[in-house]
Here is the input.
Amino acid sequence: MSEIKEKACQAKEASRQMAKATTGKKNQALLAIARRLRAAKAQILEANRRDIARAGTAGLPKPMMKRLTLDEAKIEGMATNAEAVAALPDPVGEYIAQWRRPNGLLIGQVRVPLGVVGIIYESRPNVTLEAASLCLKTGNAVLLRGGSEALASNVAIVEVLQAGLTEAGLPAAAVSVVTDPDRRLALEMMRCNEYIDLLIPRGGAGLIKSVVENSTVPVIETGVGNCHVYVHREAGLDRAVDIIVNAKCSNPAVCNAAESLLVDEAVATTFLPKAAEALRSNGVELRGCAKTRAILPGIKEATDEDWAAEYLDLILAVKVVEGPTEAIDHINRWGTRHSEAILTNDYLAARRFMDEVDAAAVYVNASTRFTDGYEFGFGAEVGISTQKLHARGPMGLRELTTYKFVVQGEGQIRA
Amino acid sequence: MSEIKEKACQAKEASRQMAKATTGKKNQALLAIARRLRAAKAQILEANRRDIARAGTAGLPKPMMKRLTLDEAKIEGMATNAEAVAALPDPVGEYIAQWRRPNGLLIGQVRVPLGVVGIIYESRPNVTLEAASLCLKTGNAVLLRGGSEALASNVAIVEVLQAGLTEAGLPAAAVSVVTDPDRRLALEMMRCNEYIDLLIPRGGAGLIKSVVENSTVPVIETGVGNCHVYVHREAGLDRAVDIIVNAKCSNPAVCNAAESLLVDEAVATTFLPKAAEALRSNGVELRGCAKTRAILPGIKEATDEDWAAEYLDLILAVKVVEGPTEAIDHINRWGTRHSEAILTNDYLAARRFMDEVDAAAVYVNASTRFTDGYEFGFGAEVGISTQKLHARGPMGLRELTTYKFVVQGEGQIRA
Here is the structure.
């Protein structure tokens, strides 16, 4: 039996215990994990140093090295994270609805854990703690497969997680990490429908695409965000400059950052020079359509590749549009259904944008950067789903649950 | 461009119009469809006769022939069905929640259509009307691929659907049927992530398995039900006989029919002879474990295949268990997470069964046959999901929608 099958099968067993665990027990485990993380700082950093040494020899690219590297502050952050998850309300057991049928049957729809959640991710060892905490809180077992470059760090963190579970009287097998680096095991994990109920890939576009294409286990697709800010003719133009600068520059490497700016022709000559000045002073390179380039001479021409791009960098594509119809068409054609904003004081334009733009989050007069579990008030974030099934947009704890119907009768039979 | 790509792309275009359509317009289309179905009875029956003649020559098995055959009553049933769907509340536009954040952002979570729903199904031409009505009501476009044996019937029904849409000013391309019988097109449909948002296979276990294994488009798995009725020692035994007879015999060919009976050892000698008499008088063949066979001599031995079987026939596997622990373990091991019932007057046993059995619907003192969209009060049924993501158990109109977040601000930017 492969390591995946064996650990997934043990996780399934453990998931039955986790599903029965009270909120009190699960919180006890999370708090024990936080305490033990702080106590095990030295061992975790030591394991992390081994990963870094190996990765250095293997010539891992710099950004990945940075994501791989832990320090005391990051471990303290993990501990605080586990405590924060313990403090959140437990969605398990919540009644979504309950009603009585004419024949007297009482039907309740109650939230229950999914079972076993698989996480496939890349370099960042903090994902190990974060993903596991959220799964534990929701009564799921979790099977982790991180990048092989982070294996020693991940194993050290999982040891802490398992010790915390054991301390609270919960099964250690509710969290486990795949240690065999063989890539075929990832494929096996994607096809382990017997034991794994949900797969969440976390990482770059290549990883996510591979999981979506190869997995027969249900997947939640997260990530790609080609987000637009549309400046309507009735936008307050100063406020509009602040918003596009925030959407583009406050963290250009994340999925809710803006990648394109659309501007109504009626205000383009007044708005674009102001916006360009503010964006350039933040180091942003602009690429534009012909009309944009007539107003902002010297910038590069934007091609279809630019309209489609998720730059994740200080680059912004700019297009002048006739009005809402062209803006909405452009967004529905090129967007990735993540986060889209209109800036306007026009009631009908705002309503139309909210109704017609097909995206997880549609904004009126706010930055796209708010698409985030914490900013939405969920207290946690499992990821940002860009698919339509099960969960869309920022996923909190509820999105790691399913429901069952509990039907109580007094001998009813069907006519 | 293949027929799938072409029709799926047109469906995607049409889905944008459908998403904007008011409930009034969608109902107008459904009522026009009902009227036109009645007017087109002769043409539909004529097309159906052509399918039947061809299927007869090709030697289609009898049960499939029966499912393929339409008559006036079935067409009247389709028209009534379209009218019933028009009368249901429209889930689109419903606010699931709306809340204000400390920074003043108003965040609403609002139901929207999924987009394009693909249905892959077998012989029954009434599925064409049923699936399309539910998709239209929920503002989705639908791409249908029925069995090639029902093609002429399906085309005739889709013509009526399209005429009804056009009459209401909605795009005809919101409903289309794949006419090319090439099996490779089914595979192409399963991988058409660009245009299709959800696939629902409707038919036998083989069809569903093939779609789950080959599809990269998200799938809702429906169907297989290996359902149990567990007679606890504190069950009222006469009532228990009525329930098992109802669960097994009222419609043995459906997924919510019982396939196994579990009986507490403490009541086995009194209960089993009574139950066997009632079941046998309904034509049921029993297969049992060793303890069952000691009480009911002469019945066949039940093997692991029986514990796993979805007979869909008048056969029932019977096992004597020590008590709730063994019953729950058996169900969680062999069940298909569909519908499971305990019969008891014991409070703790009932609670434990509800908590620990992992199934879409868990019953106390009622027949498993109630797992059904109509019996649950949804007014419609898209199918019964046996998966955990997106929808579980009977699916009504809501389960054909997703949501988006609509975020309204006054210039908020992220700190």
